[in-house]
Fold each of these.
Amino acid sequence: MPELPEVEVVRRGLAQHVVGRAICDAQVLHARAARRHIPGPDDLGRRLVGRTPVAASRRGKYLWLPLDGRDHALLAHLGMSGQLLVSPVGTADPIHLRARLRFTDGGGELRFVDQRTFGGLALEPLVDDGAGGAVPASVAHIARDALDPDFDDAAFVRALRRRHTGIKRALLDQSLVSGIGNIYADEALWRSRMHWATPTEEIAPVRVRGLLGHARDVMAEALAQGGTSFDALYVDVNGESGYFERSLSAYGQEGLPCPRCGTPIRREAFANRSSYRCPRCQRTPRRPRP
DNA sequence: GATCGGCCCTGCCCGC
DNA sequence: TGCGGGCAGGGCCGAT
């Protein structure tokens, strides 16, 4: 379940192992993996041959490799179960291999493996991001993430308090702040002692800033530990899992004691998925917004 | 325009 | 043992 820290770990791996290597062969093996590439999987493969990734970039959970000339980029989203692995040429293909890039230097190939096929690849033009940088066209509407040095805290506080929704929905809205998914939303809310259904317009600016700080802290800590791993689905480019799962306070801890007060953590239905909270530290607001 | 719910997809796990 | 149902969940799309 890759969120910002996990995607950043993968980005660093790509920067180290893929950038600067010319692509000599590209195979897209599953149509769904290229569904966002409108001309189709064969076109995607053809257009990658002969190109060289010159950087590895990220915004929120989107990853992209700007190609030589910097007019286009190979965009990737890992979805829930996507992996980008650098593997020696000739080793057995994983069951859910969706795409493969080989390089002129004959070194390790880049594999896109995705069990649940929520992720995907696309070749997209790079557009001006309005701040001197460039982003793939379909990423332009995504907000900067909380760890981005150019993230505007004051604008985020204003935009969030203009919303009329629950705080967790707002945290998951990638047009407000990107990179926060179910895991880190629950952890940031637990640290802030805030219920997931707290109405955004009722949260004092100082508490919004506090929540933002907690989101940053929990993601930075996860990044330092190589990301969160629940099953074998999230791994870095070398196939290694992170260790942050051991540090979670609320997410996935149903029935276990709250690390702060000892009350059993509760799991609740939230937007077709789950939310975890301490019923004592994170009290239900007077007018909850689902 | 803002908000919200449903759906996509596959494998694992649990209960019967 | 085998089968069916529930669950995981980010992002997109349509409904309200």
Note: The first strand of chain A starts at residue 23 and ends at 28.
Amino acid sequence: MATSKHAGGRPREQRVDTAIAAAVRAVIGESGYAGLTVDAVAATAGVGKASIYRRYATKQEMTFAVLLHDLREESPADTGTLHGDLSALTEQIAEQLRGPGAGTLTGLLADIRADPELRTRFAETFLAVERGIITTLLDRAITRGELTHRPDAALVQALLLGPLFAWLIVLDEDSARATELAHLVATVATNALTANLLPTETWSTPVTAPDAVPGR
Amino acid sequence: MATSKHAGGRPREQRVDTAIAAAVRAVIGESGYAGLTVDAVAATAGVGKASIYRRYATKQEMTFAVLLHDLREESPADTGTLHGDLSALTEQIAEQLRGPGAGTLTGLLADIRADPELRTRFAETFLAVERGIITTLLDRAITRGELTHRPDAALVQALLLGPLFAWLIVLDEDSARATELAHLVATVATNALTANLLPTETWSTPVTAPDAVPGR
Amino acid sequence: MATSKHAGGRPREQRVDTAIAAAVRAVIGESGYAGLTVDAVAATAGVGKASIYRRYATKQEMTFAVLLHDLREESPADTGTLHGDLSALTEQIAEQLRGPGAGTLTGLLADIRADPELRTRFAETFLAVERGIITTLLDRAITRGELTHRPDAALVQALLLGPLFAWLIVLDEDSARATELAHLVATVATNALTANLLPTETWSTPVTAPDAVPGR
Amino acid sequence: MATSKHAGGRPREQRVDTAIAAAVRAVIGESGYAGLTVDAVAATAGVGKASIYRRYATKQEMTFAVLLHDLREESPADTGTLHGDLSALTEQIAEQLRGPGAGTLTGLLADIRADPELRTRFAETFLAVERGIITTLLDRAITRGELTHRPDAALVQALLLGPLFAWLIVLDEDSARATELAHLVATVATNALTANLLPTETWSTPVTAPDAVPGR
DNA sequence: ATATAAGCGAGACGGTACGTCACGTCTTTGT
DNA sequence: ACAAAGACGTGACGTACCGTCTCGCTTATAT
């Protein structure tokens, strides 16, 4: 059994993909998200514009692919307690948000919102994955007996992600204190969950594709 | 001493200001934030481009002025309890975020982040006001005896604003449930505050003047 | 009666028109017709590309307008004899063909042929004018009694223009001898005309409307 | 001694040459000379682009080779009179010019003029051959006693080729009348020649290689 | 028989030019 | 002096072609 044999014609060079990704990051580092032009990326990467547009339909898609590739969520380790799990997750989120920088993230988010296709892909490949992690984590707590039932994961996600996002992106506060905030958020959320403040998911409002999550 | 006497020449028509503001909203409603061009605004408003640029230095400034004028925070009413006050505030925040739509807010936020001057004005005229409200609210709770000391307002702001922002803007969840989330957030925050989970503001991190940090 | 009053808005600057025309000629002189790019013209003229495209829909239209403006036919002087008139005309044609250079003319001609609209304009503004001159000239000869009837002007045009075009453009022969050839052509044509070798225009074949030809 | 033995490796398939030639003509017929792209030719021919570039260095060379292969001049038959010979030649020229269509010829001519190498080859393989034919024809007339001396062949060529070229290519007149014009041109040229209007070739201005012609 | 060499379709590659669009400025005519 | 209209220089966008290259494969001759 073969895996995608290569139909014919010259295969895409991985070197080009690498160069594009590096160039995107370099140009953003140099000129910011606003100064990110396709020509600049092509020039920096030593690559033709056509090679970029052969891979990505628009500049936004390119940026999305390059920048969000780094942000891929990893499966959370079991720390033994709900608070520990939540703490690990919020720390990871803080880490990810800190990376690209506030300016980049707002620009990227705006671009994602403007393009319906990107929006869907963002929801599916990023938000849904994170939500899946949260679900896993909550189920573990139920198994342990820390929780009696599973609350709405979307609300939990908002409670966890929101404060960190606000701190780093909206308020533009000191990123050094993000870890501190991460722990605070984890504690607050743990309290809320164990106090049964959150309703269960009764209205079924999945981000996009709930079935695509657990199988992963 | 008179206030802005009008030095000479034809005075500006207020009609033009109104038309611009209306046109900005109309164009965004029609074509989204991405389709918001100065030419489109001028044409829709029946106004020359020069009249726009006589008022605002850049397109971003125009958008900022028009869209964030509505969002001016109002002084909070004293509901008698900390939880009531927080609930009123989060509801107000939810209301404001629901208004312009997610696409508009992300775009606007990106533009604000890209322009240092706008960033400062955003922090001063919006974030700082909101933070002031929070401070007022916390002081009231201390007076009532609900709190023993005043925790860091920036952290409180992140905890209150964040989940709503995430829900409406990042996760793009059902805006009808925003009120529900607002109450949840208020409750969670009240619990955290009364449990003394938040540290007091020891590092002095004002929103408006990061350069005022004493370490300098 | 006024001549196109200027409806409103900033008027086109004639300086730009002039600069574009000069730049087109400069770039062709520098890099040949093949090296004539819109960007080069814009840069040389110190003009934005948009200002070029505001005037001309395509590069070809620009080239057409600039290069064929010089070639405008002037009304022929009456020399007193048919041979003298023809000689003056062929000399003028030779002069015009010699000007832009063979490479430019072939390129321009190819572009004109490729665009139906340009083709029509070329026929109307250039070929038809030249043919009108020929008609005038023949009528004069009839008045003088040198000719008994007016032969088909299209055939005369082919006989006069053709050899010079072939010599300079197709065969790329010595342009210094073009004047000699012009006189020869005039003499040969005079002989043919006075010998009544050419038929009268019976089929009605206007330059501008070739589709009206019945034989098709 | 063998002719090009084939050093090793797979020999070129003649099928490919044929397919390319057919495709060039097909694409021109479909999209005109302007729409003649190498990719289109390759796709139409069912051939890789590399196979085209293995045969021709540039697109222009390909076009040249394919389109001018048909136009090869054939040796003229002796009709017994100068006028008959000239008539046969002009008819043949008219036939050749009628074939590819005006748009194609102007485009091709422009490309030939732009490339020095093609220009040389065009002069040598096409113009010089035609001039050789004219020379032969004139010599025959001298032998017959119709002419007393041999006039400049380049001038004769211009007189013969020019009007037909102008009629079909520049003026874009009815190609059905080209034969009529061919006879007219032959008559006019015969008159001019027998009237000794043309000078002999005193300045020696061969197209390219005069010695390469007669020996054939 | 097998190695060597080149041709083959397919299509990716770096470049270059095209024509479009938006920005923020400037210049006209009116009021 | 402000207003509407719209031209101006700048610069990025996404598309199209050119001529080159690299794949995996096929087809000849040379050993």
Note: Residues 52 and 58 of chain C are 9 Å apart (CA to CA).
